[in-house]
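Quick one:
INPUT:
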């Protein structure tokens, strides 16, 4: 590969290349579909000397995240990756290492959670981490995966943030999709992301507080949580500053959310990750039919860029928030955050529709976007609208017909 040359990479390989060009020094790993290709690639590079440092196979995601956080606290640039049930298995550790305020980057390759079992993506796994204190960047393309890992280290290692950054990409739709990715030369990357200069960790063995009982009173606990919250809020400014420097060096501009065909849009879809590509294609087709549609793609989910999103959506009549997740008893997870961000604006949209689609990797079809437009035009928003049509129902019934004789045979 020549410097500055585009190469065809899967989303997983793009993630591995991001870690490689960031010159990570330690990768604790545990395999899980559809993430395994990332750590397999990194393992090979450590084995053949391409990367200098240490790769360790751990016994679970729980120990993997703890090892990653402990190494980051010592001043080592750390990378790891997981997916789906692995994220849930390591959830206790994620709360712990974010509380330690250690800078590192981890990738989540989104996959729907059990039960039932599927290998295909939705976003309940990554949304389960939203309150543990990670900074979250969501990628639509393989190029964004690579870029966000470099940006993630700049954000995480900023002394005013000092928090782990999670980069999310969709399993299968992006993890195993090959796209052209531009890998910049090492000299330019080094200008953007110099060698890791460790910051003073929050908890140090030399401090009496760290050596004392781990059970603190409410005042001390509240202080640390308030500082954590302020650091997370500050990450939005650091993201914008980082994106500005990134644009100057690499020519690609990233805002907290991407506005697509938004200027005169009467109908706006709010989406994130790889299915936003489907949304953009639908917007262009609707435009050819004379329907003024647009799309807002969320990149920065934590901290939630409330002002940016509100200002982008205000002035548009009708908005549909398409969630690839489901909080049973509530609906889509992003929808109430969007509504909350718009609450104090007088020119907020007149209709905001919650849409649930893409669960378990189920396709969002062109007809679905037209159905959303019809709901926004003709009825008061019913929250939520489920993208589950007659074709989907027939598919489910075929599965029932296949399974039914087996069930009867077992009962006989």
């Amino acid at each position: 590969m020549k410097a500055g040359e585009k190469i065809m990479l899967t989303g997983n390989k793009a993630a591995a290349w991001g870690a490689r060009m960031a010159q990570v020094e330690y990768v604790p790993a545990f395999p899980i579909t559809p993430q395994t290709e990332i750590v397999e690639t990194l393992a090979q590079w450590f084995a053949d000397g391409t990367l200098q440092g240490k790769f360790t196979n751990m016994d679970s995601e729980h120990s993997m995240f703890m090892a990653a956080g402990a190494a980051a606290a010592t001043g080592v640039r750390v990378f790891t990756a997981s997916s789906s049930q692995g994220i849930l298995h390591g959830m206790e550790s994620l709360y712990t290492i974010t509380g330690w305020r250690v800078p590192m980057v981890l990738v989540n390759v989104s996959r729907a959670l059990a039960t039932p079992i599927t290998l295909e993506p939705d976003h309940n796994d990554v949304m389960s981490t939203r309150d543990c204190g990670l900074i979250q960047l969501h990628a639509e393309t393989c190029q964004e995966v690579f870029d966000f890992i470099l940006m993630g280290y700049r954000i995480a290692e900023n002394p005013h943030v000092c928090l782990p950054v999670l980069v999310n990409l969709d399993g299968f739709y992006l993890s195993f999709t090959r796209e052209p990715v531009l890998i910049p030369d090492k000299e330019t990357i080094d200008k953007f992301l110099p060698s890791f200069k460790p910051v003073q960790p929050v908890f140090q063995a030399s401090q009496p507080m760290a050596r004392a009982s781990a059970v603190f009173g409410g005042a001390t606990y509240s202080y640390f949580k308030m500082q954590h919250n302020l650091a997370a809020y500050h990450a939005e400014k650091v993201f914008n500053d980082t994106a500005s420097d990134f644009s100057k060096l690499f020519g690609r501009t990233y805002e907290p959310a991407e506005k697509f065909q938004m200027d005169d849009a009467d109908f706006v879809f709010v989406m994130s990750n790889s299915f936003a590509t489907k949304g953009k294609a639908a917007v262009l087709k609707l435009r050819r039919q004379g329907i003024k549609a647009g799309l807002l793609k969320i990149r920065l989910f934590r901290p939630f860029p409330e002002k940016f999103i509100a200002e982008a959506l205000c002035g548009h009549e009708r908005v549909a928030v398409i969630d690839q997740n489901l909080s049973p008893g509530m609906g889509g997870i992003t929808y109430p955050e969007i509504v909350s961000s718009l609450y104090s604006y007088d020119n907020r949209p007149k209709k905001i529709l919650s849409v649930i689609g893409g669960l378990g990797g189920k396709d969002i079809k062109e007809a679905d976007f037209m159905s959303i437009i019809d709901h926004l035009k003709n009825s008061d928003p019913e929250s939520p609208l489920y993208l589950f049509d007659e074709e989907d129902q027939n598919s489910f019934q075929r599965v029932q017909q296949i399974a039914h004789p087996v069930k009867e045979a077992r009962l006989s």
